[in-house]
Amino acid sequence: MLLVFALAAILWGVGYASGASRQARTVMLAVLFASVLALHLVLPDGHPLRLATGEDPALWLLLGGFAGLAVLYGAGIRALKRQVVSKDKAEMMDETQGPLFTTSELERYARHIVLRELGGPGQKKLKQAQVLVIGAGGLGAPALQYLAAAGIGTIGVIDDDIVENANLQRQVIHTDGRIGMPKVFSAQAAMEAQNPHVVVRPYHRRLDETVARDLFAAYDVILDGTDNFETRYLSNRVAAALGKPLVSGALSQWEGQLSVFDPAQGGPCYQCIFPEAPAPGLAPSCAEAGVIGPLPGVVGAMMAVEAIKVVTGAGQALRGEMLIYDALYGETRKIRLKRRSDCPVCGGG
Ligand SMILES: [Zn+2]
Known about the structure:
The protein has two domains: 2-91, no CATH class; 129-336, 3-Layer(aba) Sandwich (Rossmann fold). The protein is built from 14 helices and ten strands. It has helices spanning 2-17, 22-42, 48-52, 57-91, 103-108, 110-113, 119-128, 140-150, 183-194, 209-217, 229-242, 270-273, 286-289, 294-312; strands at residues 93-94, 98-99, 130-134, 154-158, 199-203, 221-224, 246-252, 255-261, 321-326, 331-336. It starts with a helix and ends in a 13-residue tail after the last strand. Zinc ion is lined by residues 263, 268-269, 271-272, 340, 343, 345-347.
């Protein structure tokens, strides 16, 4: 029997060395197996050739049976894989316009597409999503960078500031050469340079009552990265009224906060948690109190993660919860947030 195995190994090795295909080598082994089996069936008991090749044909039949099962199993797995791949491909097609992604995009988003929680369908949702970011500063800048890189199809950004030298210690979307340029145009240039497959809509103006409603209505998810309470309360009111999820981040010195306010899904809104703006001086701005440079990057990137989860439904977004990151001591904690029945924005139902 050993003799036959040695012969099989030699055949396989010689076939491999001479460049024969796997299929051709398998056929050679099948021929060897059939010859040995034929010898056993034709030659009488005790024949030296039978003794040298394992004596009993039952052994060979058993071995053949196992090999056959293994081949069948392999073929079944391959068929299943083909089915999954073609299903994924079908889901990445737009019914009316053919393929939704170019080959270059499929390659670019490959690390998303292999994620079980996203896959092709998740990437398609990202491409079809419209996300608005309020503020292209500390929190908005990193959120914008990662939303663009992740392939969010349409990204709106509203901000009336211009790039200043003192922004560049943390707002790495902007560059020294773009000091003096409106932040929304600087951010647009950076995003389009990073990912030409996304559409960026810059709004160089302050968010106020007159435009908020129409603007928010055009987007699926709103990210609030502003540093003033007036805009925060306004964004919260309008997002809640339109039933749009609001991904909200905040910073102070060494600490960051993050939550998703989505009362349409039953969670609290921003005003449930912060019923009133703090008295002037109690919550100093970054300009007054300072902020460690990478912190907005950490919290802004987390805001992008939450937006991706809200858009695709992956995992569990931070609805009804607040994540607090203390950079100075490297600690994070999560607190549960409750809706207030007397909230003027979302209360009473
Ligand atoms: Zn509320």
